[in-house]
Amino acid sequence: MKTEFVYFDLDNTLLDHTAAERDAHHDICRTFSEFQSVAIEEWLSTYKEINSTLWMQYQKGEVDRYQLQRARFRESMTKLGIPADRSEEIGTAYMNVYRQYWKWVPGAEEALTRVSEKYPVGFITNGFKETQQKKIEYLNLNRFSDKFLISEDIGVMKPHPKVFEIATKMSAFEPQQILYVGDSYSSDIIGGRNAGWRTAWYTALVEEYQECMTADFCFEQFPVLIDYLNQ
Ligand SMILES: [Mg+2]
Fold it and tell me: Which residue ranges form the domains of the chain, and what is each CATH number?
């Protein structure tokens, strides 16, 4: 069946989350004296590990988003032996700085523009409602579609089947007519495939890659996606 509708993931597919996260941590480490004795790479890898563990707990409903936002700095600082008294203040400062470094993934705006001229499109994202809405505004995604699904609104995250069921209904097409473009193998590709969708995997920002990981279509550069959808 032909593709009739295209959904896009947001973080690391349209908005370069990894670069914004990295730049914001560099900024925070320069601003707060607590980090003076720590190498940035060590800090970032510790934070990323603890943050991803907390996200998994958040996904299972074991912590809420406020606990997650507080704990990721406190726990990372404690682990590295940094005084964590100001961890809450630093966590808040981080969220503000993070927003200042948002930018499009290279080529994504052009691709989305071109794809949306030919297909109806929509957006599905895991994450905090408040932050994701700000990203949607920042990228001005409303000019392409009014179909948005933020996981916090429905209480479950990708790859949960409910996310894809709701998105399928929202598109008004059959699952086999929907293509999902995303960077996360476990959330986007597995989730989309399990829902009967077609999947296009954006691999340029993927850190862990195994041969068994497959999608209907893989691409590293957005012009390749445009060509694929223009066939
Ligand atoms: Mg993503």
Answer: 5-16+103-230 (3.40.50.1000), 17-100 (1.10.150.240)
Per-residue pLDDT, 84: 97
Ligand 1 midpoint to CA 34 (Å): 31
* C-alpha 67 – ligand 1 centre gap (Å): 22
Q: Are 91 and 70 in contact (CB under 8 A)?
A: yes
Give the chain's mean pLDDT. 95
Rounded mean pLDDT, 100-128 = 97
Kindly give the distance from the C-alpha atom of residue 184 to the centroid of ligand 1, in angstroms, as a whole number: 5
Residue 224 burial by Cβ neighbours in a 10 Å radius (0-12, 13-18, 19+)? middle
Distance between CA 216 and CA 122 in Å, rounded? 19
Q: What is the pLDDT of residues 132-191, one digit of tens each?
A: 999 999 999 999 999 999 999 999 999 999 999 999 999 999 999 999 999 999 999 999
Angle between helices 108-118 and 222-230 (to 10 degrees): 10
Q: Is the pLDDT of residue 205 over 90?
A: no
